[in-house]
Amino acid sequence: MSKKFENFGDLGLNAPQFPGQQVKGMSIDQIRTLIKKQRRIKGYSFTVPSGQSTQNIQLSGTARILLGIAMLPNYKAAVNTNPYTVGFQNITEVTLKINNEIVVENLHPNFLSNFLNDDEYNYLPRPLSGTDQIILVFNNPNLTENVSVAFYYI
Fold first, then answer.
1. Does 31 fall in a domain?
2. Which of 32, 63, 129, 148 could cross-link to 59 by cystine, CB 3.0-4.6 Å?
3. Contact 126, 116 (CB under 8 A)
4. Does some domain include residue 27?
5. Model confidence, pTM
6. 3-class secondary structure for 11-60?
7. What are phi and psi of 84, to 5 degrees?
8. Residue 108 included in any domain
9. 80-118 tens-digit pLDDT
C-alpha cells in the first residue's frame, strides 16, 4: 500500500509534519517555501459608531502581498431577513489606505460584501512589507453598526 493511502492510526491523525515529503518527495525547505506562499486570512470585528471612525489593521509580519478584502454587516436581523442578503444599513462609505496609498475611497461597503460580489473576496492586490500601515476609515451618519472584515494575504 502506498503511503498516500495509509490508515490514520489510533488517534485518527498520523499526519506527518511535512506532508509533501511523503507524496512528492519534497525537501523540508521546499515545503516551507510552499507554505509561505499559501493564502492566509485575518479577520476583524468591530463596532462603527456614528460619525467618522478609523481602524488600524495589523497583519502578520510575514505578509508580502495583499490579495483582497471582504466585509460583512454583523447585526441581529429582523425575523424574516438575513444581514448577508440585506447588506449594510448605516455605514455609507469606507476608505482603505495602505502605506498612504488610497486603495478604496469613499465606497459604499456593500460593494465589498457578498451582497454585490460573487467571489470570496474583492481582489485588490498590493505589495506588503510586513510593517505596513493599513487603515480603514468608515463614514456612518446613522446608528452604530457592527462590521466584520477579512483580509486575504500571502
1. no
2. 63
3. no
4. no
5. 0.78
6. CCCCCCCCCHHHHHCCCHHHHHHHHHCCCEEEEEEEEECCEEEEEEECCC
7. -80, -15
8. yes
9. 566 566 778 899 999 999 999 999 999 999 999 887 777
